[in-house]
Amino acid sequence: MNTDRKNVIGIMGPGQNAKESEIDFAEHLGELIAEEGLVLLTGGRATGVMQAAMKGARNKGGETIGVLPGKDPHEASDHCSKVILTGMGNGRNIINVLSSDVLVFIGSGPGTVSEFGLALKEKKPAILGPGAEKLWELASAMDMPPVIFRSADALEIIEIIRRSISTRISK
Amino acid sequence: MNTDRKNVIGIMGPGQNAKESEIDFAEHLGELIAEEGLVLLTGGRATGVMQAAMKGARNKGGETIGVLPGKDPHEASDHCSKVILTGMGNGRNIINVLSSDVLVFIGSGPGTVSEFGLALKEKKPAILGPGAEKLWELASAMDMPPVIFRSADALEIIEIIRRSISTRISK
Amino acid sequence: MNTDRKNVIGIMGPGQNAKESEIDFAEHLGELIAEEGLVLLTGGRATGVMQAAMKGARNKGGETIGVLPGKDPHEASDHCSKVILTGMGNGRNIINVLSSDVLVFIGSGPGTVSEFGLALKEKKPAILGPGAEKLWELASAMDMPPVIFRSADALEIIEIIRRSISTRISK
Amino acid sequence: MNTDRKNVIGIMGPGQNAKESEIDFAEHLGELIAEEGLVLLTGGRATGVMQAAMKGARNKGGETIGVLPGKDPHEASDHCSKVILTGMGNGRNIINVLSSDVLVFIGSGPGTVSEFGLALKEKKPAILGPGAEKLWELASAMDMPPVIFRSADALEIIEIIRRSISTRISK
Question: In whole angstroms, what is the distance from residue A80 CA to residue B33 CA?
Answer without folding.
Answer: 46
